[in-house]
Amino acid sequence: MKEIILDNVEATRNWAKDFAKNLKAPITVALHGDLGMGKSEIARTIIQTLSGDDTVVPSPTFTLVQTYENKDGKISHFDLYRINDKSELIEIGLPYAVDNDITLIEWPDIADDILPENTINIFLESYKDGRKLTVK
Fold first, then answer.
1. What are the pLDDT digits (tens) for 5-39?
2. Alpha-carbon torsion 46, 47, 53, 57, what sign?
3. Which CATH fold would you assign to the domain 2-135?
4. Is the Cα dihedral 129, 103, 69, 20 positive or negative?
């Protein structure tokens, strides 16, 4: 377990850039935290680090999943906030992505039982004037 204090958005982006450099498919990263804690910013920075700074990364809140290409394969970015039934996870391709892609998941709790044991869990919470990030 590793804890890091992030003082601002720039610190969050810098951490995510460094973290992204070690990601190789297949790997799953589960992003936990309340609204506004930086889950989407971390996912966006990871995607842009691996696919190019000019990559447009909209939130998948309404589309549920966005897929990006990079030199090593695909990155799948899921937002499970609006998922109410686990059967929907199959419909949106989560099991396939977990097996094949760099998979970033916001609001992952509904998928806990299908995520691999080696899932990297990132927890974000308020801390003083910034955020505390815990990696497990």
1. 999 999 999 999 999 999 999 999 999 999 989 99
2. negative
3. Rossmann fold (3.40.50)
4. positive
Residues 6+ apart with CB under 8 A from 32: 39, 108, 109, 121, 122, 123, 124
Residue appearing with tokens 């506004």: 36
pLDDT digits (tens, 9 = 90+) for 92-129: 999 999 999 999 999 999 999 999 999 999 999 999 88
SS3 letters across the chain: CEEEEECCHHHHHHHHHHHHCCCCCCEEEEEECCCCCCHHHHHHHHHHHHHCCCCCCCCCCCCCEEEEEECCEEEEEEECCCCCCCHHHHHCCHHHHHHHCEEEEECHHHHHHHCCCCCEEEEEEEECCEEEEEEC
**Tokens, residue 49:** 């680090």
Distance, in Å, from the CA atom of 60 to the CA atom of 136, rounded to the nearest integer, reads 24
Q: What is the dihedral of CA 73, 78, 84, 89, to 10 degrees?
A: 0
* Domain coordinates in residue numbering, the chain: 2-135
